[in-house]
Each structure stands twice: as structure tokens, then as C-alpha cells.
Amino acid sequence: MTQIEINRPRVAGPSLLEDEAVALWRDVAAEIGWPVQPVSMRSLKLDSTRSIAVAKVTGPNAKAVVLKGEFGRFRPDRLARDLEALERARTVLAPCPDLAVPEILWSDPARGVSIQSFVPGDSGRKALAWARFGLGDRSAILRRCGRYAAALHRGGVDQVGGFRPGRFLGRVSERAAKVRQGVLAVPKPRRFLGLCAYLHRAGRRCRSAPAQHCRTHGDFHLLNLIVADDRLTAIDFRSRSQGYGYTDLARFWLNAGEAFDPQDKEALGFAGLPLADLQALEEGYGHRAHEDPVFVFLFAHQMYTEWSKLAGTGGKLRPDQRQQLIRLTARLDALLAAEALE
To answer: Where are the transmembrane segments (predicted)?
Structure first.
């Protein structure tokens, strides 16, 4: 985390979002009954693509809160729906004392700002990394993650209907055509086109299959899960409408960085994921999701989404993007190998 000096002047440049967060705190501190100074502010997240800054603010009596600000052009109704989703999740998870969400302490969607309680603990990614060294129970953490997703989905079920892959495949076809024509550059274009073709075949296998349509987290991955000894807390809800519950699980597996990279001689399962990890999450979820053709399709579609984000880089991938591409091609190889055995 980066320490932010609260009384520094606002300046343009790489730290502009931090400066915006400082100015925002000056505006809202009095409204929540906190002094502007003395406080300590540390950056938790800066997303320049979406003009979002998230900071931990520690004030009187060492009490800490999280300030989240959206800047530039944003939609107040979107922020309001995100906060509503968080409150809805609080109600759904009420019967589960070890599954939680942060408390909304103050918000003003019209100004793009919310203040929430600070949740102590490690991110899910860090907790799993510590568990590799025997500092924590990796399977127990993943079972709790599965339980969290299950409780959230089953508490907000709206309907179970026939899956319609066509709503996804139209866009896939359009993008594949642009890649073939050379209009859109993606890393490893032939492999990307192979993934697009796989999606069409997977879509035929799951057309009209039963699929749970419910309220979801919307960005369910290890960096948005905070692990403490007695509870698991999800943050940064983006569930603004109904969706397929399996999308949360697909995002969980594919936005984990090195957390699920196989270790030496480790048994592998679906899509080359560590078998023990897969079994633990699904045990918590209460369902062998990887055996459902709808999940397989949504998993592959999440791969397509992440791969598409690498378009337009001109081949100049950052080290983390290169590693992500290696993981995506490995997942694709595993999916194709499993398909050949069917």
C-alpha cells in the first residue's frame, strides 16, 4: 500500500487519482463527523482505466474506513445499484455468520463516493499463497469460498431456465471475423480462433440445458475476497442485474494469477486446474460444476473475455499479461484434450 500525504496539493500526473482521493476526503470528512486531519490515508487500489481510487483512511482512535471514489464520467445509478447489491447480499448471508460483506457507512452516488467499513485480513490470493507454506488450510479456504458463492446464488435465485448460448456467440463470431481479416490484433491469433471455434462446439453441447439465473457478485475472484480466521468477506460487488451463477465461478478460476498454477507432481483436474483445489471449491459449492456443460461454456467464454482484453497491445505485453496468456493457452489445451476424449 502507498502512503498518501493528506495535506499535499493536487497536481496532475501519475498520482492524479490519489490527489482526487485526497480532495474527495477533504470534502466528505466533515459530513461523516471525521476531521480532515490528523488522518492516515493509504492507497488500496488505483484503476486508471475506470478512474476509480480506493483508499484506507485511519482516523481517531485508530478506526479505519475505506473511501472509494469514482471520477470523471461515471453513472450515479450504477454506483447506487452496486451498493444495493451489497446490502442485498448482507440480507442473503445473514444466516451464515462466517460469510460477510462490508458495512456501508456513508454514500453519495451523485458524487461517486462511498465510505465502507475496513475489513481486516488477507486477500484470498495472499491467504492461499501462505497456505502453500503451511500457514493456513488451503482446502478449508477454498471450501469457504465455494460456500460463499453457493449462499449468494441460492439466496437470490430468480429462475432456472434453458441456457441460450446464442446471446454470447454472436459477439464471438464478430470478433473472430475481425481477427481473421487482420482488423483486430490479439496475441496468438490462431490459438484465439481455436478458442472461438471451441465455444461454438461447447454452445451446441449446452443449448437449452438447465441453467441457474440469479443475482451474482459480478466480480468474484480472490482479490475481492478477504480471509480472516473467523469469516470470509466479499468486497467490490458489481451485480447490477441477473446473471448466470456459474459466471462467478468461472471468473474465480480465471482471475487468480499464479494462485492456481500447478505445483510439481500435483494432480490436475478440469482445464488443468489443481484437482485438490477444484474438489475443495466444489465441495463448498455443493455441486460438481465442472461436469455441467453450461459451466464449461461459461468458463471458456470467460477465457475468451480475458484473452480479448489483450487485443490492441501491439504485442507489447507486460510480464503479468504474458503469464496470463501462458495460463490461457494451457487452459485451452486442457479443454481441447478433454473434448477429444468425449
So the answer is: none
